[in-house]
Amino acid sequence: YPRLDIFASSGTSDPYVKFKISGKEVFRSKIIHKNLNPVWDEKVSLLVDNLREPLYVKVFDYDFGLQDDFMGSAYLYLETLDVSLDLKDPHYPDHNLGSLELAVTLTPKEGDIRETHQSLRLSDVHRKAQLWRGIVSISLIEGRDLQPMDANGFSDPYVKFRMRHQKYKSKTINKTLNPQWREQFDFHLYDEQGGFIDITVWDKDAGKKDDFMGRCQVDLSLLPKECTHRLDLTLEEGEGTLVLLVTLTASAAVSISDLSVNMLDDPHERREILHRYSLLRSFHNIKDVGVVQVKVIRAEGLMAADVTGKSDPFCVVELSNDRLQTHTVYKNLNPEWNKVFTFNVKDIHSVLEVTVYDEDRDRSADFLGKVAIPLLSIQNGERKAYALKSKELTGPTKGVIFLELDVIYNAVKAGLRTLIPIEQKYIEEEPRVSKQLLLQNFNRVRRCIMFLINAGCYINSCFEWESPQRSICAFLLFVVVVWNFELYMIPLALLLPLAWNYILISSGKDTRQGDVVTVEDLLEDEDEDYDRDDKDSEKKGFMNKLYAIQDVCISVQSALDEVASYGERIKNTFNWTVPFLSWLAIVALCVATIIVYFIPLRYIVLAWGVNKFTKKLRDPYTIDNNELLDFLSRVPSDVQVVGAPPSLHSNPSIRPVHLSICTSTYPPRRGLKCSTHPIYNYPTHTLP
C-alpha cells in the first residue's frame, strides 16, 4: 500500500503515482486532492519478466487543463525490495522531494512464465491504459445562477470535463448567467468500479487568461448502470449550479488477440456477426452500426530513431475515441507484431488511424509514421502495404506497414447514424496560428467563390448571346421549365449532376483527380512553413504578447476552413468521392421527390413547423441538430481526400521507389525547388 509524504513550503498538491516497467506504464494510482501526505490504500498485481529490471515510480501533481507537474521519481529494485523510496529529480539530485512507502510481495509464477506473460501482457498488464469496460454518456444541459465575472454583470461561460486522460470542452455561451449548452459526448470507462469526472467552469476572456468560475465532481461508482441520471451539481469555489444527464452503459466493444485467435476467421463467429448486422436487424440497437477487425502484421524500412541506428517501434490503432496499441519490438527496423484488434463501429464514416512510434524510456514516444484509412474504403480480407506518412498526412515518411482489414456493417443503421451529430474526439491538439494554414484556407475559399463566379459568367453569357446556339437552347429550356415547374422538380434536378458524374466515373472519365492535384499543390510546403512559423514565434514572442490577435487569427482561420470544407463537401457529394454517401443522397432525394410530389407543400411546411414548435415540449433536454449539416460533416473535404492514403499494393514483394523531382522556373531564378515522391510498380503510377 503506497504512502507518500511531500514537503512543500506553501500550498497544496493533488498527487498521483505512475508505475512503469521497461518504459511502459503498467499502473496509475487515483488522485488525492489537496493533500501533501496522501494515503492511497491501493493494491495492484504486476507481471515481471526480469527481476533485474527495476520498477520505475514517478509522482505527479494533477493540474486540470494543464500539463501535470513532476514531483519526483525513484527506482524500486526487485532484488532488494526497498519499501521506503526517497523521491529525487534526476536534474537536481540533491533536492529532497519527499518519500514513498510501499508494501511489496514478490510471488513466483508457476509454469512457463514467458508464455503466460506473452498471452496476458496486453490483456492484463496494460488493460487500464487500453481496454475500456463501458461508456459514460454525458449531456451538458444548462447552468443556473452562475457568478458574474465581467463588468457588464454577465459572463461568457464554458465547461471543461476531465476523466483521467480523457478531456472535453464545451462551446462558449456569451453574455449570460444561465447558459443553455445542450451538448452530448461520451467518455470511456476503464475501471469497472467507476471513477471520478472533474468538472470546471470558466469565463472566456479575449486577450487574457480565462477566469475560473467554480468546480464540481461526479463519482461514477455511486450511479447505477443502464439508466439515465439527472444531476444538479452545486459549484464549489464559485456560484451557481450545473445540470447534467449521465448514463453508464456496460460494453465490450474493443479487444486484442493474437493472429491465431480472431473471431472473423472462425466461420461460426463470422456467420453470427453477419446475422447481427443483417438488414433484418436494421432497427435493433441503432447505435451498434458494425464491427471492424484490424490485423497489424508487420512494418518494414522504418526510420532509425535511436543513436544505434535502430528503433523500438510499437503501433497504436485508433478509431474515433477508441485506442489500442501493440507491444514494443526492441532494436528493430522491420518489426513483426501479428496482433488483431477489434472495434465496434458507431459511425461508418470514421477514419481508422494507425500510428507507429518509437518507445523512449524516460521521454514521450517519437513519431515514426502514420496512415489514415476511411472505413468505407476498406476492401475486406486483403493484406496490403500502406506507406507511412507525416503527422499532418501531407507527405511520405520512411517505411511501410502491412495491414489486413475487415469491416462488417448494417447499411440502414449507417445511413440513420449519418443524420445525427458526429462524435467529437476528446483528445485533440490545440489550434495554433499559422500563416501557411491561413493562406491555404483563403485559397480554398477563393476556389469555391471562383466556381460560383464562373457559373454566373456562363449564365450571363447566355443572356449576352455570345454563342447563339447555346443561348437558343438556354432560352427554350428556360421557357419549358418555368411553364411546367412544380416543386418536386427541385430535388429531381439535384439528381441530375449525381447521375451525370456517376456516368462519367463509370466510363473512366474521372474529373476528381484535378481537384486532388490542386490541393496537393497547396499542401506541398506546409511542413516547412509550420517549422518556420514556430521559429519566428519563439524569436519574436508573438504568441505570448498578442493574445487578442492570436484569437482573431484562429477564429478567421477556422472560419475559412469551415466555409471551404462545406463548399468542397457539397461538390464531393455530387462527385461520388464517397459512393456510400452519394447513394444515400440519391435515396434521400428520391424520397424527397416522392413526398413533395404527392403531398401539398402547405402540409409539409405545417408538419415541419409543428415539429419545431413542439420539440422542446416533448423533450425538454433535447439536443438540437441539423440533419443536412450532419450529413455533410461525413463527406470528406479536398484536404481530407488528399490526407487519406491509398493502399500501395497487395503484393508484399513490391517495394516503393522514391523519385526526386527538381523544377526550375522561367525566367530563371536562383536555386531549384525539389520534392521527393514515392512511386510504385503499379499501372496507375505513371509520369506524364
From TrEMBL:
InterPro entries: C2_dom, C2_domain_sf, MCTP_C
Annotated CDD domains: C2B_MCTP_PRT, C2C_MCTP_PRT
SUPFAM superfamilies on file: C2 domain (Calcium/lipid-binding domain, CaLB)
Signal peptide: none
Key words of the record: Calcium, Membrane, Metal-binding, Repeat, Transmembrane, Transmembrane helix
Primary residence: membrane
Subcellular locations according to the entry: Membrane
C2 domain: residues covered: 1-91, 116-235, 267-388
GO cellular component, as recorded: synaptic vesicle membrane
BP GO annotations: regulation of neurotransmitter secretion
Family matches, as Pfam families: C2, PRT_C
Annotated family: Belongs to the MCTP family.
PANTHER family: C2 DOMAIN-CONTAINING PROTEIN, DYSFERLIN-RELATED
Name of the molecule in the record: Multiple C2 domains, transmembrane 1a
Native source species: Astyanax mexicanus
Lineage per the UniProt record: Eukaryota, Metazoa, Chordata, Craniata, Vertebrata
